[in-house]
Design goal:
Blueprint (H helix, E strand, L loop, with lengths): L7 E4 L6 E4 L3 H6 L15 E6 L5 E10 L2 E5 L2 H15 L5 E4 L4 E7 L1 H11 L9 E4 L2 E7 L6 E7 L14 H10 L36 H9 L5 E8 L10 E6 L2 E14 L2 E9 L7 E4 L2 E8 L8
Antiparallel strand pairs: 1-7, 2-5, 2-6, 3-4, 4-5, 7-10, 8-9, 9-10, 11-14, 11-16, 12-13, 12-15, 13-14, 15-16
């Protein structure tokens, strides 16, 4: 089953912005998230995870530098709790942490039209060697260039002198579908604090650095890796049906005529009479396995190939 990505430009309205400033922002965040923030320079983008001390995930964010600050882009509905947890320990460091969502415009897209708009604003287009470029107009970011067409985000302060106008029609479902096809797990309010990062395959997309020092939840996350205790993983599934937001919904699978609990949906998107989801299932789930939606038993999803190897 496939659904080709179309050229599009769209506001990304489900992302929030947490901004960290202060001379100890790198040192502090290094002790809170799973990626190596010390390696986050002006040309890089990181995917990172914020967990509690039990290794359960509060939020998954894109992280990048902006001037004298670090920006985290979690799902809007996961932002408040993650922000509160960051601020809980931030009082002991020289760092200021704030919700700056209302002060930024985020636009995503694919295709020549968007690349030309980025070229006009920034003088060049991000590439695999320089994933982030910035100037007074904000930041342009290469998000993925794997098996999908290159995807880009533009982040602009609302007071930027030269603004990038997005299409009036919201095509955020296309961006969400590309995120799912890239095998990127996400946490929003319904699924917060339930899964360790490996259950979302975040180790497969370089969101966990196992060589860095201690951070919140590190002991559990390390044990999950080195003792092989993880029995769940993220999977991509698709259905020939159109369904509204399924985040937090349950899946079931059939064994000898009986339907049993199968997993939890983390994100979903619908386009061209297909619905794609990213869900946490048993790690030994095979390609092509059928699952049904618990709330709508006639809706069947089939497991699709992941763009990376589960390790």
């Amino acid at each position: 089953m496939s659904s080709a990505t179309k050229e599009y430009i769209t506001p990304i309205t489900n992302k929030g912005v947490i901004q960290l400033t202060g001379e100890e922002r790198v040192k502090y965040l290094q002790g809170q998230v799973t990626s190596d923030v010390a390696k986050l320079d002006e040309q890089k983008l990181q995917l990172t995870c914020h967990c509690d001390f039990k290794g359960k995930t509060w939020s998954v964010s894109y992280a990048l530098n902006w001037q004298d600050s670090i920006l985290l882009l979690p799902h809007k509905t996961a932002l408040a709790k993650s922000l509160a947890e960051l601020n809980k320990y931030g009082v002991f460091a020289k760092v200021e942490i704030a919700d700056q969502t209302d002060n930024w415009q985020i636009i995503g897209g694919v295709g020549e039209t968007f690349e030309q708009a980025i070229q006009d604003l920034f003088g060049s287009v991000p590439n695999t060697n320089e994933k982030v470029i910035s100037n007074e107009n904000g930041l342009a970011v290469l998000v993925s260039s794997l098996h999908l067409p290159s995807r880009f985000m533009v982040l602009q302060p609302i007071d930027a002198k030269q603004k990038l106008a997005s299409e009036s029609t919201d095509k955020g479902h296309l961006w969400e579908m590309d995120e799912i096809k890239a095998g990127i797990g996400e946490i929003s309010e319904p699924t917060a604090n339930e899964f360790v990062p490996q259950m979302l395959n975040l180790h497969c997309v370089d969101a966990i650095d196992f060589e860095k020092g201690c951070y919140m939840g590190q002991e559990v996350i390390a044990r999950t890796k080195y003792l092989g205790r993880n029995k769940k993983a993220g999977f991509i599934l698709a259905s020939n049906s159109t369904q509204s937001n399924l985040t937090g919904e349950s899946l079931e699978f059939e064994i000898e005529g009986n339907w049993r609990p199968g997993g939890t949906i983390l994100r979903s998107a619908t386009n061209d009479e297909q619905t794609w989801i990213f869900a946490v299932l048993a790690k030994d789930t095979q390609l092509g396995t059928e699952f049904r939606l618990k709330s709508k038993p006639d809706v069947i999803f089939n497991t699709q190939a992941l763009p990376y190897e589960l390790t």
